[in-house]
Specification:
The chain has strands at 5-8, 11-14, 24-31, 36-43, 57-60. It has a domain at 5-47. 0% of the residues lie in helices and 45% in strands. This is UDP-glucuronosyltransferase 1-9-like.
Length: 62
């Protein structure tokens, strides 16, 4: 997990401004004795959003 990113339930919380270094494929894997599941999210950071300082930016997947 990149520095400054935390998992809360099914959400990634970016607790810092996003940068192009955050671009990539994020993978959520779960498994139990009955099955395993994997979901991939391809994230691309192309520029800076002005006017937002700090805070968290949730990344949702279904």
């Amino acid at each position: 997990m990149p520095e400054g990113v935390k998992v809360k339930g099914a959400t990634l919380l970016f607790q810092r401004p996003l940068t192009p270094d955050d671009t990539g494929v994020y993978i959520c894997q779960v498994a139990n004795r009955f099955a395993a599941k994997e979901v991939r999210a391809s994230i691309s950071i192309k520029g800076r959003v002005w006017g937002r300082q700090g805070g968290s930016a949730p990344l949702w997947w279904a």
